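[recover] target loaded
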């Protein structure tokens, strides 16, 4: 059974940083493309970042230069380092790989 569990969300002031982590069981991250999505209230789910099995990364335009996605093969985790956070980054952040979603973690950025 595949399970993805996100952690690291919380409340932070604008300009601050948070690091999200996604731990996987039942699936190996390094064999798949993994992604972070986010969904703000009343908005569609938005792709934030991806990391391929070869380690190539891509980012949504709104987070380029501020967010960094990475993978720890030994721990089978994928992380999202978020710097220079803005109120518009407030959303529930989801981890995704293959066809599986995590339950999400709330990130709230206060102005």
């Amino acid at each position: 059974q595949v399970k993805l569990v996100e952690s690291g969300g919380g409340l932070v002031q604008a300009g601050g940083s948070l690091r999200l982590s996604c731990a996987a069981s039942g699936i190996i991250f390094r064999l798949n493309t993994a992604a972070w999505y986010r969904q703000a209230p009343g908005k569609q789910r938005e792709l934030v970042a991806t990391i391929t099995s070869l380690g190539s990364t891509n980012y949504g335009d709104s987070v380029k230069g501020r967010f960094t996605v990475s993978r720890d093969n030994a721990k089978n985790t994928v992380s999202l380092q978020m710097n220079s956070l803005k109120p518009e980054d407030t959303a529930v952040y989801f981890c995704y790989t293959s066809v599986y979603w995590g339950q999400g973690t709330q990130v709230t950025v206060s102005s």
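[recover] notes: The chain has a mean pLDDT of 97.
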